[in-house]
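Input record (Table S2, row 346):
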Amino acid sequence: MSNPVSSTTGKIRTVELGSGGPLVGVQGFGAMGISVAYGDTDVAAARDTLEASLEAGVTLIDTADMYGHGSNEEFLAPFVAAHRDEITLATKFGFELRADDPNYRGISNDPGYLRRAVEASLRRLDVDVIDLYYMHRRDPAVPLAESVGTMAELVREGKVKHLGLSEVTGAELREAYAVHPITALQSEWSVFSRDVEHSAVGAAAALGVAFVPYSPLGRGFLTGAFTDANEELSSSDFRTLLPRFSGDNARANAALLAPLHAIAADRGASTAQIALAWVQQRAEVHGLTVVPIPGTRKRSRLLENAAATRITLTAEELALLEPIAGQVAGDRYADMSHTSAAREAK
Ligand SMILES: NC(=O)c1ccc[n+]([C@@H]2O[C@H](COP(=O)([O-])OP(=O)(O)OC[C@H]3O[C@@H](n4cnc5c(N)ncnc54)[C@H](OP(=O)(O)O)[C@@H]3O)[C@@H](O)[C@H]2O)c1
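Output record (NAP complex):
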């Protein structure tokens, strides 16, 4: 079979991000890890990786106010300024940022807080309008009609073009959509994490909402790089806190990757590419527009990931990958209380 890595020529294909949404490359870029969360950053390499995204046609650029307490948005600002018309810029609010306590991790969808959050993001990104503004986490203390209603006001005021939600259930997505059209739902979806298929995926497909799978490489685990993060990562790396990355869980999960490695070897592709091809194709089964947002600090990996959009897995290959998610050891987060999965379970 041909090697999809070497076939990275030209730009990836484009799709409409949800009905009436912007035209974007069929794979986006998750910018969180280029400056925070996953160890040290080589600034020049990170900036070069951002430039490579546009060369590959990767135009949906994803950040959030909570990544590095605003610093990830600031890191992106020069790139955004240089390419404002070429990119679709997405950011998020919902984790409450407190100036006096950078480690505070509460959630707020309060309309007053939301209004302060959007102004702060606009300032840090140095833009007049945010193309896609997500509610990062649902705050059950605030009715969706109120929080999404305030987000809709931001659209009418020209501060935001499109609305998105992250980690909501199918029922919550429908409730929000009744207040204002939602362009994209961003939640974790990968070979390892399929709880969104319970209700969110079906609701998004029915409503014409695009799905933006975050951590489509399982935060790097699906590349085959880990067997026990506590030994392999610095103590400052966020992943040392994730149940799937440590000790017996990590060792058991690494063994689950055998079919991914085998398919990759057979195709002359990388394991990461097979994981990305899976999420792209899994969405097609559901009749859904999907734009995964893998993150990387390296140009070569960005091009490798973009090339995965050209891989089509066979039915036999998909069948080999099907049982994996049901066998994964450990939750997605140490504290699952803010995820859609926690609310689905109730
Ligand atoms: N809505 C939410 O709640 C939420 C939560 C988490 C993330 N996100 C968004 O989703 C984006 C992506 O998620 P993520 O960064 O958590 O995880 P991910 O994309 O699944 O994995 C990123 C990790 O994989 C490595 N990697 C990427 N491509 C690779 C390749 N081809 N070969 C080997 N390793 C590769 C990267 O390492 P290097 O950097 O060293 O290449 C990085 O450590 C984030 O940037 C963020 O924008 C959203």
